[in-house]
Amino acid sequence: MTPADTLRFATRAASGYPLRTALMVLAMSIGVAAVVVLTALGDGARRYVVNEFSALGSNLVIVLPGRTATGGFGLGNLVTSTPRDLTVRDAQALLRAPLVTRMAPLSVGNSEIAWGGRLREAMVVGTSGDYVDIRAFRMAEGSFLPREDLGRATAVAVLGTKIRDEIFGSEPAIGRIVRVGDRRLRVIGVLAKTGQGLGMNTDELVFLPVATAQAMFNTNNLFRIIVEARSREAIGPAKQQLEQIMRLRRDGELDVTLITQDAVLGTFDRILGALTLAVAGIAAISLAVAGILVMNVMLVAVTQRTAEIGLLKALGATGRNIRLAFLTEAALLSLAGAITGFALGHLGAWGLRLAFPVLPAWPPDWAVFAGIGTALTTGILFGVMPARRASRLDPVQALSRR
Amino acid sequence: MSLHDFLQLALRSLLAHRLRSFLTLLGIGVGIAAVILLTSIGEGLHRFVLNEFTQFGTNIIEVTPGRQGARGGPPGLPSTARQLTLDDALALERVPHVTAVTPIVWGNSDVEGAGRVRRTSVYGVGPEMQRIFSMHVRVGRFLPPDDPNGARAFVVLGAKLKHELFGNANALGERLRIGGERYRVIGVMEEKGQFLGVDLDDTAYIPTSRALSLYNREGLIEINVTYEEAVPASRVTPGIRKVLVARHGQDDVTLTTQEDMLARLSNILGILTAAVGALGGISLLVGAVGIVTIMTIAVTERTNEIGLLVALGARRATILRLFLAEAVALAAIGGVFGLLVGSAIAQFVGLLVPALPVHTPWHFVAAAESTAVVIGLLAGVLPAIRAARLDAVEALRAE
Fold first, then answer.
1. ipTM for the complex shown
2. For each successive 10 residues of chain A (402 residues), what is the average pLDDT?
3. Which of A198, A330, B125, B305 pairs with A114 at a CA distance of 20 to 30 A?
4. Chain A neighbours among B 349-378 (CB < 8 Å)?
5. Which among A40, A98, A377 has a CA at the least distance from the CA of A245?
């Protein structure tokens, strides 16, 4: 039999039973579509988190007070105090590292903001003028905190858009005096809308000069220091320089924790990548089920077409020809299923993107190839047994059967 | 047709095509097994997390400064314009139903003892802390009920910290230096293990007032309150809120009851388990398509058998039921098969990875098995209707 004959035999067999063929293609395509959609979801989540982190700014090293010698990095390190505070002077000293371009100290707390009879609880962030550049925020009105000596407690405040809207409504905010905690501060700027970011909604924050915030919270210590390195490559060496500076300031003892954005990103990347893989693996189980179905139906086909096979053999077709014909049929079915599933999956991913515009739900290339590849492999693999059974049929018996 | 004949016919047709029936069963079985395995892992995780949380007792209310609704930020920020003080904690002891109160401050400092230094978490707590969090002292005793504002410089060590500093030697009565101040060891805690990645044994407990001065703070990080077992949290929280409002002049604290937290957690984890189960359900769907396919083939193949039955006077409803029964039997047997395999693998995974708790939730098992039967019914309907509609004469002539 020529390849064209084999192909004709297979396609005719498939189109001879349209309902059966449609059902098999459906089964295969459900499996492939599931893999494509789920990996799109997983990878979308990964990209979303990575984007969020990149939106924090680039090339950042974050300095936290406290260090645990044994436990490594734990939840306890995130909010903690040490006998030796992380101070504004420490923050200024960090600027001496040659690979560091900018730095912003952060002193964070809850307080309330009031104006004209309206009062809101808000998160207050004491920081410096460089913070706006490090985080790449834009201003809607006015200007950000002044670049001045960090020890000066200037009585000014910068508001997030949402806070501004809730306190001032449609009235102008710039130049007004608001009460924050026990202080009276002049509003000098409003940040442009940025929206939700990892656990913090910048639209609901109130920014003060760090010294003002520290005086309000009656504290000397900082919550974090955010340091920006000169370039991406400089993050590692910059971290070492920063550690060196902190060690010198603390009599040789390093009691702060430095985390780089890359390390945090890498961790998230790995976790979410593994999750995507696991979910894809679970979806792939359905491909195995689809494979079993293909095998089942092919076996039935062999039984039904015994006479036809007998005739072919009597006409001189070898066992190999028959085997090839049945395998081709299985492969064609799987291929059709895989292509349909691929299309369905992309449709699903498109639906996801429509429903959740923030989620960049694109299926990764590897998943598409793996999905289609697995579909084809299972289809052909499960086609082997029926094909062998067909090729082994005795022509005389096969013909006489019917 | 009698029930006996009915069953016999359905079973015989299954047995007549043993390989085909087996493969269909396998399809459904793999689907069910996937659902069972995944929900077992999900449910195990669920229980594990709830256990982790309830090991401290369930009747705890956490009082934190600042009202939640200080929106825009995560909870537990270090500073607030509204401090909770030691006196606030003392005042809470008089609230009805409250059994114990502990003011808490924590930080991170060097602990020096027996010539060794470890940097570790230091908790400033009240004498009631161990009772509130159901922790136990192994040797010695816990912090004594001193005057809260002038407590003596005693320290109780976590099991791991004690071991790191003193090894197997006796630590009781030894002197320690924490952040430059001298403390005397009066107790060592029992091991408590890890909680959400934080080692609870690598700690030192000192009186709250000393921790406040050590960390140069005015306010507490939180106050933990326990109340009588039989009383619901909703009857205790208003009392606490009233006392604090009276003291602060306004409502500026957040109360979190353990009940709320557990309920919220349980909700999230339940959704997770269901989602994972649904994921496994995709393969069940594929298995269903398998049943439809095989039943369709069966109807075509057995056209003349059906014709004969109709000619002999069998009613259409009987034929419909016959094919439905076959489909349901396939699905149900496949389901049982999948249940066995799924829970066996789950147990095996549990043995292999002891860190991953596995628990097969029986309501999910029941749900999966009934899903299988329903799938069988649904998948059988189409072919069964087709079979029942066949014209007797045509069907007999078909072969």
1. 0.71
2. 77 79 88 89 86 76 70 44 74 88 88 84 88 85 87 89 87 89 90 69 86 86 86 86 87 79 81 87 86 85 81 83 86 90 92 86 86 86 86 78 54
3. A198
4. none
5. A98
Contact criterion met (CB < 8 Å) for A71 and B27: no
Cβ contact A219:A205 at 8 Å? no
DSSP string across B198-244: EETTSEEEEEHHHHHHHTT-SS-SEEEEEE-TTS-HHHHHHHHHHHH
In whole angstroms, what is the distance from residue B61 CA to residue B257 CA? 4
Interface test with A, best of B26, B30, B71 (most A CBs within 10 A): B71
CB B34 within 8 A of CB B341: no
Residues paired with residue B104 on neighbouring β-strands, in sequence order: B222
Per-residue burial over A105-122, b = 16 or more CB atoms within 10 Å of its CB, e = otherwise? bbbbbbbbbebeeeebbb
Instruction: Dump strand ranges (E) for B215-348.
Output: 222-227, 253-257
The residue among A39, A86, A110 with the most chain B CBs within 10 A of its CB, best to mutate, is: A110
Q: Name the minimum distance, in Å, from the CA of B234 to any CA of chain A.
A: 24
Mean pLDDT of chain B: 82
Q: Which two tokens stand for residue A143?
A: 């200007």
| Cβ neighbours for A87, distance < 8 A, ≥ 6 positions apart | A220, A221, A222
